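Lab meeting, item 3. Inverse folding demo.
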């Protein structure tokens, strides 16, 4: 589950860990019994899967941005991996929605150093030291756009 524990996945999906664990078991069993191979879909199949993939990437980012367990408020490895996946997806499927999600994640990813004080307590946006914001990430979020012209939506 994108590096998330069952508990983290359950928190992101607003479900009980036991429910998520059972869903994982059922999905694995169904894949095994039906002989469903693990493979990258054909390019023509990608747009139909976009919403599900974006949802997973954003839930992964959100768990990293506001960790449901542990001492740290932010799990930077999860947020950075979600951003990396979104960038890869944008390269494969040029879609405005992907660019929007990527820009949002980059903007939020600029804040980790300012979100928590030395005691581990959250600092509200109004009280954050804006000099700690990662200006490179903010600029990257503002500049997110298609590498090439987006095709018209059907």
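The presenter then showed the designed sequence:
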């Amino acid at each position: 589950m994108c590096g998330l524990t069952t508990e983290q996945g359950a928190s992101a999906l607003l479900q009980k860990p036991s429910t998520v664990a059972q869903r994982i078991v059922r999905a694995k069993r169904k894949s095994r019994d039906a002989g469903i191979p693990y493979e990258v879909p054909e390019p023509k199949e990608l747009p139909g899967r976009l919403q599900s993939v974006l949802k997973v990437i954003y839930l992964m980012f959100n768990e990293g941005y506001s960790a449901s367990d542990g001492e740290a408020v932010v799990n930077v490895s999860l947020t950075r991996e979600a951003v990396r996946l979104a960038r890869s997806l944008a390269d494969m499927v040029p879609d405005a929605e992907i660019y929007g999600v990527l820009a949002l994640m980059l903007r939020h990813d600029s804040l980790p150093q300012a979100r928590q004080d030395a005691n581990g307590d959250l600092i509200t946006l109004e009280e954050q030291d804006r000099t700690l914001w990662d200006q490179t990430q903010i600029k990257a979020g503002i500049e997110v756009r298609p590498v090439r012209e987006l095709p018209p939506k059907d």
